[in-house]
TrEMBL record:
Domain of life the protein comes from: Bacteria
SUPFAM superfamilies: beta-lactamase/transpeptidase-like
Pfam family membership, one: Beta-lactamase
Protein name stated in the entry: Beta-lactamase-related domain-containing protein
Sequence ranges assigned to domain Beta-lactamase-related in this UniProt record: 21-366
PANTHER family the record matches: BETA-LACTAMASE-RELATED, BETA-LACTAMASE-RELATED DOMAIN-CONTAINING PROTEIN
Positions in coiled-coil regions: none
Length: 379
C-alpha cells in the first residue's frame, strides 16, 4: 500500500473502487481529489485525499472545493430542466421569445434546446476577449446575442465551451431575474444543502483547492485548431491561472467556474438517476428530465472533433461511451479530469473532482476509466 493519505469510507463490496481512487495518486500523479458514489440513493463510497495545493502542504479535506470546469455544465443543464419543469421555459420555443435582442444576425428561430445542445453557432465571440471583458458576463452575453451563427443552426453541434455560460446567464436573467448560479443557490443549493457554487461567496474562499496544470499543450497545441476551436478556446480566456483567482470564482460562469466536490456532484446525479429527489424534495420533474436527456443531435462535434450525442446541456452516453455500459447514462466532464454522471439503469450517481489538470490523452482519461471500470465491476 502507498503512504498517500486517503480518508472517508467505502462499502466493502466496492473495495475495488477505493483501490482505483488510490491508484490515481500512485500511477497518475494525482495531487488532491475527492470521489463519491451513490447507489439507490445511498452514499456507498465517499473518499478524499492528497493535497489542496501544488506545494503539497495543505491537506485535501472532506469539504474542500475545487473548480470543476465543464462539469459545471451538467449542473446548468439541471437548472435548465428545472426551469422548464416549472413552466417558465419551453425548450421548443425560440430563445428570442424570452430575449428579443438574441434574434439579431438571423437567430430568430434558434430554439432553447438548440442553444443548450451547442447547435446555435455561437461557440465563441467573433473577436478575442480579454480576461476583464470575459469576466463581465452581461457584456459577453450582449456580444454573443448580436452575432451571426458560424454555421447553419441545427445542422451541427460545436461545443460552446465557455460561451454557453454567459448565454445561459443572459437567458435566465431575462426569465427569472437572476443568473444560473443564483437560481441554483436559491432553488437547490441552499435549501437542500448541496455544496456547489456558481458564484462562490467570499466566506468560502478558504476551502478552495489550487488548480495545478500538467504543463502539456492544450489539446495537442493551438496550431492544430480548426476555426471553430479557435473561436471556442482562443477567443475566450481560459487557464488554470485565471481560474485560481477570486475574480473567476466570484463571477461563477455556469460553463466552467463551478466550485464543488465529488459529494455535491454525486448527490445531484444520484437524484437524477433515481427518484429526482434530494432529502425528499423533487429537484426536477420527470417529464422535464426526460426532455433534457433526449437526443438533440448526434454528430462529430465541430469543436471537440469527436462523436457526441447531446441532450439539452447533458452529454449522453449513447455518443460518449465513457459513462459505463448503458446508453441511458448522461452527465458531463470537465477540462483536466473532473466528471459527474447518472446511470438510471444501474441507479447510480457519480462524482469526481481533483486539482491536477491533465491534458487530453488518446481515449478516456485513465483516472476516469479506472474508476468507472471499478464501479461496474463491483455492481
Amino acid at each position: 500500500m502507498s503512504d498517500i493519505r486517503i480518508e472517508g469510507h467505502s462499502d466493502k463490496a466496492f473495495a475495488a473502487v477505493a483501490r482505483a481512487f488510490e491508484q490515481n495518486f500512485i500511477d497518475e500523479g494525482e495531487i488532491g481529489a475527492s470521489f463519491c458514489l451513490f447507489r439507490d440513493g445511498q452514499k456507498i463510497v465517499d473518499l478524499w485525499g492528497g493535497h489542496a495545493d501544488g506545494a503539497r502542504v495543505r491537506p485535501w479535506e472532506s469539504d474542500t472545493l475545487v473548480n470543476v470546469w465543464s462539469t459545471t455544465k451538467g449542473v446548468m443543464a439541471l437548472c435548465v430542466a428545472r426551469l422548464a419543469g416549472q413552466g417558465k421555459l419551453d425548450l421548443a420555443r425560440p430563445v428570442a421569445d424570452y430575449w428579443p435582442e438574441f434574434a439579431a444576425g438571423g437567430k430568430e428561430g434558434v430554439t432553447v434546446a438548440q442553444l443548450f445542445s451547442h447547435q446555435a453557432g455561437l461557440c465563441g465571440p467573433d473577436n478575442p476577449l480579454s480576461e476583464a471583458e470575459f469576466l463581465d458576463t452581461d457584456h459577453v452575453a450582449d456580444l454573443l446575442a448580436r452575432q451571426t451563427p458560424h454555421w447553419p443552426v441545427g445542422t451541427r453541434s460545436g461545443y460552446h465551451a465557455l460561451s454557453i455560460g454567459p448565454l445561459g446567464d443572459g437567458l435566465f436573467k431575462r426569465i427569472v431575474g437572476k443568473s444560473v448560479g443564483d437560481y441554483f443557490r436559491d432553488e437547490i443549493g441552499t435549501p437542500l444543502n448541496v455544496d456547489f457554487h456558481m458564484g462562490l461567496p467570499a466566506s468560502e474562499e478558504h476551502r478552495v483547492a489550487e488548480l495545478v496544470h500538467d504543463g502539456q499543450p492544450v489539446s495537442g497545441g493551438v496550431e492544430h485548431y480548426n476555426r471553430y476551436q479557435r473561436l471556442a478556446q482562443v477567443h475566450t480566456p481560459q487557464s488554470h491561472i485565471l481560474a485560481n483567482t477570486r475574480a473567476w470564482r466570484a463571477q461563477g460562469t455556469p460553463s466552467a467556474a463551478g466550485q464543488g466536490n465529488a459529494r455535491s456532484i454525486a448527490t445531484l446525479y444520484s437524484a437524477l438517476a433515481t427518484d429526482r429527489r434530494i432529502a425528499g424534495t423533487e429537484i426536477v420533474s420527470e417529464a422535464a428530465l426526460a426532455d433534457a436527456t433526449r437526443v438533440q443531435i448526434e454528430n462529430e462535434d465541430l469543436v471537440l472533433r469527436f462523436p457526441m450525442s447531446w441532450g439539452v446541456g447533458f452529454g449522453l452516453n449513447s455518443g460518449l461511451k465513457v459513462y459505463g455500459p448503458h446508453d441511458e447514462s448522461f452527465g458531463h466532464h470537465g477540462w483536466g479530469g473532473s466528471f459527474g454522471f447518472a446511470d438510471p439503469v444501474a441507479r447510480i450517481g457519480v462524482g469526481y473532482a481533483m486539482n491536477y489538470m491533465r491534458e487530453a490523452t488518446e481515449g478516456p482519461d485513465p483516472r476516469l476509466a479506472g474508476l468507472i471500470g471499478a464501479i461496474y465491476a463491483s455492481l
